[in-house]
Design brief:
This protein has about 220 residues and is α+β, with helices and mostly antiparallel strands. The chain folds into two domains: about 80 residues, 434 Repressor (Amino-terminal Domain) (Orthogonal Bundle), CATH 1.10.260; about 120 residues, Umud Fragment, subunit A. It is about 25% helix and about 30% strand. The chain is built from six helices and ten strands; from the N terminus they run H-H-H-H-H-H-E-E-E-E-E-E-E-E-E-E. It has an eight-stranded mixed sheet with strand order 2-4-5-10-6-7-8-9, with no helix packed on it. The protein has a two-stranded antiparallel ribbon with strand order 1-3. Strand 6 and strand 7 form a beta hairpin. Helix 3 packs across helix 4. It comes from Faecalibaculum rodentium.
Length: about 220
């Protein structure tokens, strides 16, 4: 069974499809799972099979059934068998900086929607249009970024952050010396240090993006 799955590459194709639906790069998905982008690439090309632990984490992150990812079922999520997929309304606030910092209006300006199966149940979400290219190629200027509301973000994960009244979409990193930084994916942008004197808050964790092309 495993050899047939490896030959047909059902697992890899479905993981790649899920990743692209979220607008995620190999690197960003790898960081979500705590593995290298090369490992994700091997899985997608059918050169390696993910272990049970990785499959469980992928299923949780993408809100899908493991049997569907492995090609054992045509039902993507157990809820699909009994419910008509619907869009979950998500409030959209003003632009968040993928650059050097912006102030964000705390009242929603509009609403967007995302299919239930793309979001985790019992979680709250908010969205911001991206302004700037500091997170390119993971996030592009003009993309609508959907965040899961939380005060906890893993190191290396993309999130929404408030620093001294300005709002950023960056990666939170902890250096070996114990210092904390907001990091960009685009190397043209300098890291932003977070000091003990700063007013810093974690607002949310990146879940997916709606691109300007609508993909």
């Amino acid at each position: 069974m495993e050899n047939k799955q490896l030959k047909d590459n059902i697992v890899g194709e479905r993981i790649q499809s899920l990743r692209k639906e979220r607008g995620m790069s190999l690197d960003s998905l790898g960081k979500e799972l705590g593995v290298s982008k090369a490992y994700i690439s091997y899985i997608e090309r059918g050169e390696r099979q993910p272990g049970r632990n990785i499959l469980v984490r992928l299923a949780d992150f993408f809100n899908t059934d493991i049997d569907w990812m492995m090609g054992r079922s045509d039902i993507r999520s157990s809820s699909e068998e009994f419910a008509i997929p619907r869009l979950q309304p998500i409030p959209v606030y003003s632009c968040i900086s993928c650059g050097t910092g912006l102030w964000v209006n705390e009242q929603p300006e509009a609403y967007t929607g995302a299919p239930d199966w793309m979001l985790r149940p019992s979680k709250d979400y908010f969205a911001n249009p991206a302004e700037g290219n500091s997170m390119y190629p993971t996030i592009e200027n003009g993309d609508c970024i959907i965040f899961e509301q939380t005060e906890n973000v893993r190191y290396g994960q993309i999130g929404a952050f408030s620093l001294n009244g300005s709002y950023y979409c960056k990666r939170l990193e902890k250096k070996p010396d114990g210092s904390f930084w907001l990091m960009s994916d685009n190397e043209d942008y300098d890291p932003i240090p977070i000091t003990g004197d700063d007013e810093f808050r974690i607002l949310g964790a990146y879940r997916l993006r709606i691109t300007r092309k609508g993909s």
